[in-house]
Amino acid sequence: MSNISEINKDIIPKVFIVLLNYNGWKDTIECLQSLLNINYQNYQIVIVDNKSINNSVDTIKNWIENQESKKIYCLEYSKKTAENGGLEESEKYFKKFKSNEKIVLINSDENLGFSGGNNIGIKYALNLDADYIMLLNNDTVVEADFLMPLVDSLNKNKEVGIVGGKIFDYYNPQNYIAGGYIDYIKGSGYHYYNKQTIRPEKVTFLSGCLWLIRKDVFKKVGYLDEKFFMYLEDVEFCCRVLGGGYLLQYNPDSIIYHKEGRSTNNNKPLVTYYNTRNRLYFVKKCYQSRLKKMLFYIFFITSRILKMLINKETKKYIKHAFADYKNSKFGCYKHV
Questions:
Q1: Tell me: domain 4-258, CATH 3.90.550.10, correct?
Q2: 3-state secondary structure 263-329
Q3: Cβ proximity of 213 and 134 under 8 Å
Q4: What's the whole-number mean pLDDT along residues 11-32?
Q5: In the chain, pLDDT over 70 holds for what percent of residues?
Q6: CA–CA separation, 19 and 40 (whole Å)
Q7: Using CA atoms, how far apart are residues 309 and 293, in angstroms rounded to an integer?
Q8: Is the distance from CB of 145 to CB of 37 less than 8 angstroms?
């Protein structure tokens, strides 16, 4: 592993770390506390608030303003201003502060889901000449040295488009995710759990919980697809990145902790809706093989029937999912 002190500060890649917040100020603040103590020296934290309907923005701002150990400066933008690269004078002023002394807060004018919210931060970062862009779930806590191994992976191999790390379960840290793969019969991405490996290795799927992405990837394959709103957008993007000629890499030296499923545990039928509609869209968009499509539909129709038999509450959500897909209604679930 590289020692950051051995690297010329002028050539340390600039990493923009994008956190997406939606009503999750408590998790976001805990994540910020860990990020402000990492040992990497050239990064910018960017919080995108996805039109929270609680007091998230004010609570996060209040926390930033009342740090006792050191002063943290906050630069706040609207969605439109951020996507255009912020304000020139403000950005020039902001440059004089250290990485752990400043936070950018962007307010979305609507809830755009995982893809749309993160795209705001991505566009801001690209306009500010980011070298690498990190998408990090706000309900995570990071180790102090988590970033350098990921940067090393991209520095050492220009073919790697996205790199991810070892994601421990925050509540049960004996369990962890070690990269993953796309199952084309099931039409989704799946994790490798507790897989023991000591070296970085190629994978075909990385959880969108932690991505470090080369900036050129977005120029070549585009942004996250906002039609998904939530679920499967990370699978589709991994598929598109692989199709663009890049590799995906898992690096076990980068460690974070994730409070997995906090945002959706209380609404499982809604999860079924998104997983149903979005798998159909993913297959339509990414599958070229007729055989793969046929095998997928055999599995998928069977699994939906079983879900409806096991849990009758999911029946209307599955029906809505098929109807919305057929009528090209994507984005946020809009049925009452």
A1: yes
A2: CCCCCHHHHHHHHHHHHHHHHHHHCCCHHHHHHHHHHHHHHHHHHHHHCHHHHHHHHHHHHHHHCCC
A3: yes
A4: 96
A5: 95
A6: 17
A7: 24
A8: no
Cβ–Cβ contacts within 10 Å for residue 188, how many? 20
- Looking at every residue in the chain, the average pLDDT score rounds to 93
Dump strand ranges (E) for 2-151. 15-21, 43-49, 73-78, 102-107, 132-137, 140-142
Domain ranges of the chain: 4-258, 268-326
Residue 163 phi, psi dihedral angles, 5° rounding:
-130, 140
State residue 267's pLDDT score: 53
Amino acid at the residue 50: N
| End-to-end Cα, the chain, rounded Å | 52
Please give the Cα distance from 169 to 160 (Å, whole number). Answer: 26
State yes or no: pLDDT of 251 exceeds 50.
Answer: yes
Tokens encoding 39? 């040992």
Would you call 36 helix, strand, or coil by DSSP? coil
